[in-house]
Design goal:
- The chain is an all-alpha fold.
- It has 2 helices and no strands.
- It is extended and about 40 Å long.
- The chain starts with a helix and ends in a 26-residue tail after the last helix.
- About 0% of the residues are buried.
Length: about 70
Amino acid sequence: MCPDCEDFARTVLLLGQLALCADMAGADLDFVEAVSPSLAVSLPEPPPGTFPDDHDPDGGPTCLGDV
């Protein structure tokens, strides 16, 4: 696996595990809220072939925060 692919996969895995942790009873939500944004921002560019060639990352619906 290429280094960028490995970094991307590891970061996505950690984000998923953090989401599961947040849903557990007694989870430290302060930790989840502190770590989640940093981890999400650290995502490298997705490896080639992750999305279809015609994928437009800016073509999605408007988020409520963008209104």
